[in-house]
């Protein structure tokens, strides 16, 4: 079996890791061993936080909707139940945006939800 010389591939692999580690503080941006550890950790954090971002935004939207609904005498869960009963199909992202930017329009939506709950 022929002998495998890994020089080019090994250098390419190390260069790739060190390029990904640009901007890291201290020895982590220049030493391959420490850079490799930090890059692996950073990729794990990135993966974890891509999932967490979705949860964080949903929490923010719910807080904004709740604040808007309480101005009109409804709790968040009453508001959402009223929207379902009224067949209003707006997602939380849109509802939160309306609550933050156009309170008058949100008031109309809350009135629809209240009317549907009263039935």
Provide a descriptive summary of the structure in words.
It is a single chain. With 119 residues, the protein is an all-alpha fold. It is 76% helix and 0% strand. It is built from 5 helices and no strands. α1 packs parallel to α2 (32-71), α3 crosses α5 (103-118) and α4 (92-101) crosses α5 (103-118). The mean pLDDT is 95.
Oligomer: single chain
- Spans where pLDDT lies below 50 across 5 or more residues: none
The helicity comes to: over 70%
Integer-rounded radius of gyration = 26 Å
- Largest sheet, strands/sense/barrel: none
How would you spell out the order of helices and strands?
Answer: HHHHH
Number of helices: 5
**Mean pLDDT rating:** 95
Structural classification = mainly alpha
Strand content: under 5%
Indicate the overall shape: rod-shaped
Question: In whole angstroms, how far apart are the ends?
Answer: 83 Å
Number of strand elements: 0
């Amino acid at each position: 079996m022929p002998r495998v010389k890994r020089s080019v591939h090994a250098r390419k692999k190390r260069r790739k890791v060190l390029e990904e580690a640009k901007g890291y503080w201290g020895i982590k941006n220049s030493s391959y061993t420490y850079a490799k550890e930090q890059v692996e950790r950073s990729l794990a954090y990135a993966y974890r936080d891509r999932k967490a971002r979705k949860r964080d935004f949903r929490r923010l939207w719910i807080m904004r909707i709740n604040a808007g609904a309480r101005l009109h005498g409804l709790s968040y869960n009453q508001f959402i139940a009223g929207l379902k009963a009224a067949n209003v199909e707006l997602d939380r992202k849109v509802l939160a945006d309306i609550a933050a930017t156009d309170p008058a329009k949100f008031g109309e939506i809350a009135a629809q939800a209240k009317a549907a709950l009263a039935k």
